[in-house]
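The material for today's practical consists of a large collection of protein records. An example says more than a description, so a record of this kind follows:
***
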Amino acid sequence: GFYGTLSRSDLSNPRAERSKDLLPARYPDEPALRGEWLAPTIVSPHSNRIVYHGMQHLMMSRDRGDTWDIISPDLTFGATTEKGDIPYHTIFAISESSMRFGLIYVGTDDGRAHVTKDGGKTWAEISGGVAPRKWVSRLAASAFAIGTVYMTQNGMREDDFTPYVWRSADFGKTWTSLAAGIPMGPVNVIREDPVDKDTLYVGTDTGVYVTTDTGKTWNVLGSGLPSTSVQDLIVHRRDN
């Protein structure tokens, strides 16, 4: 498996101490960690000292990466015949609810999604009702309703350009498609507006789309962006 690197930089430290490798050493009898080329890392919305990092397990640090706990089982299919190919059977998307510490959603490149409500003590799979075995490109826990979560999937690697955009109001037990009106995928990212709960933004391989009615209708965002692949989006809270 690919171990990868994860480091922290702190420019306030002396030059020799500005960068620190963070991934923990593994015992010889432990399976190697598997990570995406760009493995997901997020800072908890509840504390800037708490960091989550996705390999085949979800890892959690309470001290900015100095020490780690593995807080999930292998959340992928873990198919031995595919590891090292696509899918690589690793975590690709992580989202923690800003409304409740420990309510965390995780999605993988082999199409699985899970939720924990207790910080990793127990996990439930929430992949039912969405496109099977399609890369989970993003998960976004709502800041307006504790049970609401959004998910996008990406089928580009199987030459599937269908837009997959989903919304759940019950922690992922059931899903409703919001993709009608988006002309073409694949979809790489979804973001919730920080002020208006009905406004959502998605980035696809052709541009950015916005809805102001929770997915009933979609429009191209702005007129000056050329046709381009959009891998990430952020709505600036100060300027909205």
Observations:
- The mean pLDDT is 92.
- The two ends are 42 Å apart (CA to CA).
